[in-house]
Design a protein that fits this description.
- The structure holds 2 protein chains of 2 kinds.
- By secondary structure, chain A is α/β, with parallel strands linked by helices.
- The longest helix of chain A is centred in the last third of the chain and has 18 residues.
- Chain A is globular, with a radius of gyration of 17 Å.
- Chain A starts with a helix and ends in an 8-residue tail after the last helix.
- Chain B has 16 helices and 14 strands.
- In chain B, a hairpin with a 2-residue loop joins strand 1 and strand 2.
- The longest helix of chain B has 18 residues.
- Classes of the chains: A alpha/beta, B alpha/beta.
- At the A-B interface, helix 3, helix 5 and strand 6 of A face strand 2, helix 1, helix 8 and strand 11 of B.
Chain lengths: 273, 411
């Protein structure tokens, strides 16, 4: 069983949703990435999404754009992200790590080379924001063959046809983007999200996580009541932006701990997939 | 009277039936965007497919192009320039005479009419030199739509006059200070606006890049340029040209004039990229000449990128060519060998700019000056009965400050 499947199975038995923090690898400094992973897992992360910085993050709002710029200015690269994962794996062989980023840095490395290096590093899933399912059959096959889950997005505007398509090939979990807009925007309507999750669940057995626009513990707890996972990104990245490089892991961890307590205490309305 | 060589038309090339249903030009193009934009692009694709087949839409577009834009634009024989160079005859397709001063309005009229059909009251655009922004602000005023234009802060400084024009036309200009603060960053920001406001907003992309259907749709709206030439050249010059030249940034004016000529294998197609300070300096925007394939802005195409797949900053004296990508159809035209791509430096473009001013009384845009410069290089190497057709895609009024500065003057 993959690390991702194992975590969702364990949480299902416990009756709790997964908490998934997102941070950009290399923000504020490449050397701090392992310390950041350690702090997030210590604060209650069940899975970690590690952003691979890109010069043109078209689907991200200003907070994550700036984190990408900081990481790139500090010299972060895809190869160094993989090195950081490999280093962290020496101390934690349980917590799934999912890379999230854009197609071009991965294409530059090449699909086969990336798949081999990501597998060796201990990466569990990859979400390429600008790879919709119909453009990336080769990619999905290449990383699946390496034992890595290709993770896909669904959104409030996804048609029934697209939900079907993603459900057919989704592995690991499906990432439901909870609002129309870019990452970091605010004010999601949790009842709309709940209805959408139900529609997706009808099509797939893969767990469904919810992200974009979850900025406070109360919203996270409401989402945790019906989703399989709650992704918290921009709120953590804001905290990192406000911190010195040395303090960043501890301060991000402290913010995440607040979300973790809320998610753990959230009453569950629906069975976990 | 110029002697004309008898001409044997070669067999037409295999038909150029691109893109495919999902927007692919060979391995290029496609729809590489996040799930959040898929529905909007699907809606746009369906609306465009319906509109392009609708005689009422076509008639409305034709009316606007004739009476508002001023089409057809003339083809002009630059005889004094040709005589001075002593070789092939240079003809200019005068897109600079269009309303708003460039080819860009052909596309913005088409997309604005489509936006109106789709019931979208708000249009947004990205702009580099400001020509597409002006063309979008113009049609938004014409059709009574709200208009927001995204423009890199670097370009806002370089093109202050166009910023003011857009404001006069009622548009809101939003300076973009992320990334390299140029066209690519303005495009990122416009995409973010679109994904956030998709229910009431139509995104008017200004070049043949972006996700499907944009590369096809922007090409189709600009293809009127080449279609007119196919009719005009035999009437004026007695036959079709030997070479068609156009500058290439994103590549919309080049696709516009190339498209009708692609099946005619006897016509060489030559795209002219911005060589900046010289390819060897790394400070240029010659994506097809010096870049490599990758994924940016919703499509697979040639890009300027570093060894880690990060998009690199480009340089050109002309803001309109300062873009690290290029339309996917150009990438495929290059790989198939149907078109060839060369580069012209800032200095060569400036020299061509001045020469056209003085020999023909035409002030070209710095973008178009790149194509003129390549024609000036080529003409002396060819016989006097050969014909070069240059897309003079825009006029140079917007470039007065840049040219004066390059000459050590301040206005």
């Amino acid at each position: 069983m993959s690390r991702i499947a194992a975590v969702f199975a364990k949480l299902s038995a416990e009756g709790r949703a997964a908490l998934i923090p997102f941070v950009t690898a290399g923000d504020p400094a490449p050397a701090g990435t392992v310390a950041m992973l350690r702090a997030l897992v210590g604060a209650g992360a069940d899975v970690v999404e590690l952003g691979v910085p890109f010069s043109d993050p078209m689907a991200d709002g200003p907070t994550i754009q700036r984190s990408s710029e900081r990481a790139l200015a500090a010299g972060m690269t895809l190869a160094k992200v993989l090195d950081a994962v490999a280093e962290y794996r020496r101390e934690d062989d349980v917590t799934p790590i999912v890379l999230m980023g854009y197609a071009n840095p991965i294409e530059r490395m090449g699909h086969p080379a990336f798949a081999a290096r990501a597998r060796a590093a201990g990466v569990d899933g990859v979400l390429v924001v600008d790879y919709p399912p119909e453009e990336c059959e080769d990619w999905a096959a290449a990383i699946s063959d390496a034992g890595i889950d290709p993770i896909f997005l669904l959104s409030p505007t996804s048609s029934a046809l697209r939900i079907d398509g993603v459900s057919r090939i989704a592995r690991g979990y499906v990432y439901y983007v909870s609002l129309k807009g870019v990452s970091g925007a605010s004010n999601i309507d949790t009842s709309d999200v709940e209805a959408a999750i139900a529609r997706i669940r009808a099509k797939t057995d893969v767990p469904v996580g919810v992200g974009f626009g979850i900025r406070d513990a109360g919203t996270a707890a409401r989402i945790a009541g019906f989703a399989d996972a709650v992704v918290v990104g921009s709120r953590l990245v804001e905290e990192i932006e406000r911190s010195s490089p040395d303090e960043a892991p501890a301060r991000a961890g402290a913010v995440l701990a607040g979300f973790a307590a809320a998610v753990a205490a959230a009453p569950r309305k629906a069975p976990v997939a | 009277m110029q002697m004309r060589a008898p001409r044997v038309e070669r067999e037409p090339a295999a038909s150029w039936d691109f893109p495919d249903e999902r927007g692919h030009f060979g391995p290029y193009g496609g729809v590489f965007v996040a799930e959040t934009l898929q529905a909007a692009l699907g809606e746009l694709k369906d609306a465009y497919e319906t509109a392009r087949r609708d005689p009422a839409f076509r008639a409305e577009l034709a009316y606007e192009l004739e009476h508002y834009v001023g089409r057809p634009s003339p083809v002009y024989h630059a005889k004094r320039l040709s005589d001075e160079l002593g070789g092939a005859q240079i003809y200019l397709k005068r897109e600079d005479l269009n309303h708003t001063g460039a080819h860009k309005v052909n596309n913005t009229v088409g997309q604005a009419l489509l936006a109106r059909r789709m019931g979208k009251p708000r249009v947004i655009a990205e702009t580099g030199a400001g020509q597409h922004g002006v063309a979008t602000a113009t049609v938004a005023a014409r059709y009574g739509m709200e208009c927001v234009v995204y423009m890199g802060t670097e370009d806002v400084a370089r093109q202050a006059q166009n910023v003011y024009r857009m404001k006069l036309l009622g548009a809101t200009v939003v300076p973009v200070s992320s990334g390299s603060r140029t066209l690519k960053d303005a495009l990122n920001e416009a995409m973010r606006d679109w994904v956030t406001n998709v229910s009431n907003t139509f995104y008017i992309i200004g070049t043949v890049a972006g996700p499907h259907p944009y590369p096809m749709m922007v090409r189709d709206f600009n293809a009127v340029v080449g279609k007119e030439c196919v009719t005009q050249m035999p009437a004026l010059a007695g036959r079709q040209p030997d070479v068609v030249l156009a500058c290439v940034g994103g590549g919309s004016n080049a696709m516009g004039i190339f498209h009708a000529y692609i099946p005619n294998a006897g016509v060489r197609l030559m795209g002219v990229e911005a060589g900046g300070l010289g390819i060897e300096t790394g400070k240029h925007a010659a994506t097809l000449s010096a870049g490599s394939p990758g994924v940016l802005h919703g499509n697979r195409t040639y890009l300027m990128q570093d060894e880690n797949g990060q998009i690199t900053e480009t340089h050109s004296i002309s803001a309109g060519l300062d873009y690290p990508g290029v339309g996917p159809e150009h990438a495929w035209l290059k790989d198939t060998g149907r078109a060839e791509y060369v580069s012209i430096t800032d200095d060569e473009a400036l020299a061509a700019f001045h020469r056209l001013c003085r020999t023909e009384g035409i002030i070209p845009a710095l973008e178009s000056s790149h194509a003129v410069a390549q024609a000036m290089k080529l003409a002396p190497t060819m016989a006097k009965d050969r014909i070069l057709l240059v897309n003079l895609s825009g006029r140079g009024d917007k470039d007065m400050h840049t040219v004066a500065k390059a000459s050590g003057l301040s206005l």
